[in-house]
Amino acid sequence: MISPKAFSFRRALGVAALAASLLGLGGCGAMSAQNPSSALKPVNAVEMASDARVMLKGADVVAYFTEGAYSAGVPEFKSTYEDVTFHFANADHKAKFDQTPEAFLPQYGGYCANGVAYGIPWGGDADTWKMINGKLYIFGGQGSKDAFELDEAKNLALADQYWNEEVKGGNSFVQRAKRMVFRVPHYKSGDELAKAVAAAKGQ
User: pTM score, two decimals?
Assistant: First the structure.
């Protein structure tokens, strides 16, 4: 029988090996897109055409604030901030962003806020979002948003904690691998969260 200490050591070795292999793939599109060499690292960005990393697949981050709606941006109107490219629906939104870019940045690099509450920078659909205290939060689908809203204040505090203490400035792939193996104490699976949401809705 393997002792808990030996098992923990083997898990740590496994995470280290996975992290090393992921870092070895640094030239791959997703790895590069999500991990710029800037203060915004990591970000929910993808490679699009000639742009190495486009935030939220080109969603117009200004539209959430000015129109209260998701809107797709276009390459015709784009700006680069901290080595990350942002697309906008029109010239006015681009100008607003260029004047004060930090005012329009999504929280947690645009990753799913519910995932970050578990220390996992993963997912984030631009059309599933919420403004909280004047800040933009992205979610990985309606189910993730519903789960986050079960205890919004607590989950905000957890997401802020994990983002600031573990995720911000690090490599998204390494952090993801670590927290998929070493779960946070309050971890709940997708099924558990779905059941909790259904119970809260009386379903």
Answer: 0.86
